[in-house]
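User:
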Amino acid sequence: MDSIKLILCAGAAAALDICALVMLITTYRERRAATKRWRKITADMELIEPGITHPLECDEIIIGRHASADIRIPDLSVSRYHALLTVANGSWTITDLGSKSGVFVNDKKVKSAKLRENDIIKLGSRRLTLRKRREKNV
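Assistant: Predicted structure:
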């Protein structure tokens, strides 16, 4: 009788291990699929300025000097809440949030503008470039 209980316990433990393995594999595949979908939505873009890279990892991003801004630029020429970046179907749009110095895209002052790769965005005295994310060498 004890040997039957032992065999049943071992079988139950093996079944749990198999279930855990299946869950791990499913989670891994779902994460890869979600990452692929997100890259398609965002066109896999990032903002760069000399020495700093800002990955664009959500569909609405506030840029400004305030500590709660998604992309914080600690420069007095940048307003607390300077601009809003939004993405839809792979296209990024920048909108001025009523900043004092304005938002410039390729040296043209804009209230709102669709962005393209390699556009130069000027916020206060800071220049940021929108570009495709580059894979880091490991």
